[in-house]
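ok new one. same drill as before - structure tokens go in, u give me an amino acid for every spot. 479 of them this time. try not to just spam alanines like last time pls lmao
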């Protein structure tokens, strides 16, 4: 999971792209980068949080009214500065891209790029392969004279990508002398929203993984880049768009469970409302299954589960309490690299509140249980602080399978539900009751209302049904 953005404006975009990486920081804390274009490309990227990478001085050098940005999520294995996005190539035109997702037929595509097309790959990043495929396809079509002709060339090139490239990819790209290009894979697995702004009678455009920066930048939400859609904005601000293929729309359900910020609206479904409904459905299941077990207090495992815990507590008519204080200056544990760091960080991050926990029957609501280690530590902390009984509910069903579409849960061995039954997980967590959300109830929570066009969300990590051939996967995940 990463965060991407692309802006075409009638004023300088550097500061707005910086604000975008700040508002997408939760999607990737490993590295950040911005590329802009005026008469040539300008770039700045580096390791770390956006406010460590960018300064007033280096932002001033990012000239131009069009640009793209990237927040990077930690990868498996190796990592080099060259893999920080956006990545670019000088032939043809000069093309830079930022990518969120993961390509599942990487090896096959590397063969094509390096052996058939004789291009050199500088990294093991799947984004670099995607860049070269786009460059190759554009290179085949000669020199366009007009924006209309260039859009035709793009349609041919991106259609070819849709045929060749499997997996998940939402993309923003800059093409020297041409403008901004945006496209989303035919299943729409990773999100990509769009917004518009009036700028003294002219239109500015933004495309990003979430709409979390729209309000502060003055953009109006204008829906989504559709699955299989290509959008091109030329240097004069003329927008061209075409849905090149129409397949089933299968956006990632985990965006609603965990990844996205609660104020985001993705695929025309509000994340906050979907989380409220997750808590509601889970509460109905709790009351049906355990009508005689009534906790004294409902505590969220902060902070993604806050929303679901709020509606859960409301439905079962039990007091909601922030009995675990979260230190806001520690990063989200799930996306920190390495198990040791994750283990160390939980006690730095959470502080139980004695008055809320001691001598009480505590029900903890979590958004999901992925590896199980964080959940177990939370339970231990709550017991250390004198809870009489501990119940644990998960707003997400058991996560049993790896994700091949851009999320760091690579093997079943690392997933607690990948190799343990619910009863065994209950023992491992040392809880008195454990309840998971049912898959149907989760889907209902996400798709219940709204004018959305989701056919069925991707739930491969829950049900093992991979919406595009997910089993062949590039080892060095780059999302
Ligand atoms: Fe999202 Fe899971 Fe599908 Fe990966 S497998 S895209 S995490 S729903």
């Amino acid at each position: 999971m990463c965060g991407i953005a692309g802006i075409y404006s009638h004023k300088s975009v550097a500061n707005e792209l910086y604000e975008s990486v700040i508002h997408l920081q939760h999607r990737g804390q490993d590295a950040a980068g911005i590329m802009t274009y005026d008469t040539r490309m300008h770039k700045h990227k580096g390791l770390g949080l956006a406010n460590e990478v960018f300064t007033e001085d280096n932002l001033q050098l990012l000239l131009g009214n069009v640009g793209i940005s990237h927040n990077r999520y930690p990868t498996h294995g190796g990592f080099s500065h060259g893999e920080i996005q956006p990545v670019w190539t000088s032939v043809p035109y000069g093309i830079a891209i930022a990518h969120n997702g993961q390509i599942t037929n990487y090896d096959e595509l590397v063969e094509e790029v390096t052996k058939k097309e004789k291009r050199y790959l500088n990294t093991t990043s799947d984004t670099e392969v995607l860049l070269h495929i786009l460059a190759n396809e554009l290179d085949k079509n000669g020199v366009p004279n007009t924006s209309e002709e260039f859009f035709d060339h793009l349609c041919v090139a991106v259609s070819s990508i849709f045929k060749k490239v499997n997996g998940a990819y939402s993309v923003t790209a800059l093409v020297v002398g041409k403008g901004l290009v945006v496209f989303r894979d035919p299943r729409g697995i990773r999100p990509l929203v769009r917004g518009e702004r009036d700028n003294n009678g002219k239109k500015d455009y933004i495309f990003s993984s979430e709409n979390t920066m729209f309000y502060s930048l003055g953009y109006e939400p204008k829906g989504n880049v559709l699955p299989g859609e290509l959008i091109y904005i030329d240097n004069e601000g003329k927008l061209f768009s075409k849905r090149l293929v129409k397949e089933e729309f299968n956006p990632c359900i985990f965006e609603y469970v965990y990844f996205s910020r609660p104020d985001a609206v993705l695929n025309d479904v509000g994340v906050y409302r979907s989380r409220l409904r997750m808590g509601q459905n889970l509460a109905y299941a709790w009351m049906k299954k355990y009508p005689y077990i009534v906790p004294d207090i409902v505590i969220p495992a902060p902070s993604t589960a806050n929303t679901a815990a709020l509606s859960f507590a409301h439905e079962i008519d039990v007091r909601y309490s922030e009995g675990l204080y979260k230190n806001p200056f520690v990063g989200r544990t799930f996306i920190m690299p390495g198990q040791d760091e994750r283990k160390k960080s939980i006690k730095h991050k959470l502080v139980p509140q004695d008055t809320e926990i001691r001598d009480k029957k505590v029900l903890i609501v979590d958004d999901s249980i992925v590896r199980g280690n964080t959940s177990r530590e939370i339970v231990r902390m709550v017991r250390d602080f004198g809870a009489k009984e501990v119940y644990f509910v998960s707003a997400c069903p058991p996560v049993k399978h790896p994700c091949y579409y851009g999320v760091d849960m690579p093997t079943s061995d690392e997933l607690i539900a990948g190799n343990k039954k619910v009863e065994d997980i209950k023992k491992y967590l040392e809880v008195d009751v454990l309840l998971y959300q049912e898959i149907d109830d989760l889907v209902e929570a996400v798709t219940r209302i709204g004018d959305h066009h989701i056919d069925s969300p991707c739930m491969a990590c829950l049900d093992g049904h991979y919406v595009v051939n997910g089993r062949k996967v590039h080892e060095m995940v780059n999302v």
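Residues 189, 252-254, 403, 405, 407, 458-461 surround iron/sulfur cluster (CB under 6 Å). and btw Confidence is low (pLDDT under 50) at residues 470-479.
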